[in-house]
Amino acid sequence: MFDKMQNMKFLLVLVMVTRSAADIQDLSGKMFTFPAQTNRAHVRLNTQRRNFSTVTVCHRSFTDLKRDHILFSLATPSNANDFLIFRDAKNKEIEPHIRDQKVEYGGPDYKLNMWHSICTTWDSGSGLVQLWFDGQPSIRKFISSGSNISGPVIIILGQEQDSHGGGFDINQSFIGMMTDVHMWDYILSPCEMQSYVDELNFTPGNVLNWRALDFQIVERVLIENKLITCH
């Protein structure tokens, strides 16, 4: 009887842990806080989608980092940088990487210790990528065309993947806060983009939706109320 009860308790704990790991949460008004430089702490965002011909990714971030750091990392087994958004602090650029190809956008006023809204779009048909920084569009640049992002994707916040789900570099880690992460399998219109930036009503991501997010936290990342600055 004792062994049977112990087995039942173990199964209950296992079910609870599994359920917790698979919970989908509405993170409206919340943010992820990455409080320390590390090559381990991160958030993994889950999706069942495996094929993308067009992509829009939007997020808001707040940091005081003066070094290079990752903002968004999507990897597949064939390409560690299948869709990546990187801040090159030395050259004062934001760099989208698509299908292991890179373009640079200089000029965005990436001020420290304030929120920035960053949206990135890509179309495999034309091969064009575009950056929207705090609601201001960049020019479109050619990066990669002719093939979709395909395969089991791993999406990570806080670390840059040099391999599928790993290969983290502590000197590229993100420290700060991040919120309102959405991903769509189509290109947002300029009006939808502006609604996102202004935090008005907009259609949430159909791949990643901050209001119904499937995620796992690894090590020291906190969920806190979103930091709002008063003027």
Which terms summarize this structure?
8-stranded antiparallel β-sheet; 13% helix; 231 residues; 19 strands; single chain; 9-stranded antiparallel β-sheet; mainly beta; disordered N terminus
Structure, described:
With 231 residues, the protein is mainly beta. Helix content is 13%, strand content 38%. It is built from two helices and 19 strands. It has helices spanning 2-22, 190-197; strands spanning 24-25, 30-34, 42-45, 51-52, 54-62, 69-75, 83-88, 93-98, 101-102, 105-106, 116-123, 128-133, 136-137, 141-142, 149-150, 154-157, 176-184, 213-218, 222-225. The strands form three sheets. Strands 1, 3, 6, 7, 8, 9, 10, 16 and 18 form a nine-stranded antiparallel β-sheet that branches. Strand 6 (69-75) and strand 7 form a beta hairpin. The radius of gyration is 18 Å and the shape is globular. The protein starts with a helix and ends in a 6-residue tail after the last strand. The model is unreliable at 1-21 (pLDDT under 50).
